[in-house]
Amino acid sequence: MKTQFDVLRKSRELVTKELEGLTLNQIHEIPNGFKNNIAWNVAHLVVTQQLLHYKLSGLDCLCPDELIETHKKGTIPTKIFTEEEFDEVKELLIGLPDTLQEDYEAGIFETYNEYPTSTGFVLDTIESAIAFNNFHEGIHYGIIRSIKKHL
After folding, report:
1. Which distant-in-sequence residues (6+ apart) come within 8 Å of 141 by Cβ?
2. Along the 151 residues of the chain, how does pLDDT read in single tens digits?
3. C-alpha span between 26 and 7 (Å, rounded)
4. How many other C-beta atoms can be found within 10 angstroms of the C-beta atom of residue 18?
5. Which of 9, 77, 78, 148 has the fewest CB atoms within 10 Å around its CB?
6. Angle between helices 2-19 and 126-149 (to 10 degrees)
């Protein structure tokens, strides 16, 4: 599992690098042909990881409920972050992988509620959810890079 946690941390590091030098206006811009923006994608990564790992394990998520409601699957960008709010999202993006690994190693993920993903892959253990989340992160990293090219 160490590799899975390392992949998650690296993914988050790459996303963070893409944010360097972007203004608050740029991260909220939705280029033609896209349905969301960079800010939504970053918050969506935080939210999805929490839902797939914690909520489906019957545990409390470690990010605000409001963030979940506005950035879960099926939502569109409606939130305009202040600098301070987006800094908090970035802190979660970077910090939560370490918390996940600590919680996993502490054995808190005792149960898992099976979840069929939109890709057809069925998650039935925390381990499958961690692996799938890494796949999901890669998709959104690519989307963030694509959006950035159109700014």
Report:
1. 11, 14, 15, 18
2. 999 999 999 999 999 999 999 999 999 999 999 999 999 999 999 999 999 999 999 999 999 999 999 999 999 999 999 999 999 999 999 999 999 999 999 999 999 999 999 999 999 999 999 999 999 999 999 999 999 999 9
3. 27
4. 17
5. 78
6. 20
Element (H, E) at 81: none
What is the distance between the alpha carbons of residues 100 and 126, in angstroms, rounded to a whole number? 11
Q: What is the pLDDT of residues 34-53, one digit of tens each?
A: 999 999 999 999 999 999 99
pTM check: above 0.90? yes
Tell the residue number behind the tokens 């939210």, with chain if given. Answer: 47
Residue 149 three-state SS:
helix
Q: Which of 83, 99, 52, 45 is nearest to 67 (CA)?
A: 45
Q: Is 12 exposed, middle or buried (0-12, 13-18, 19+ CB in 10 A)?
A: buried
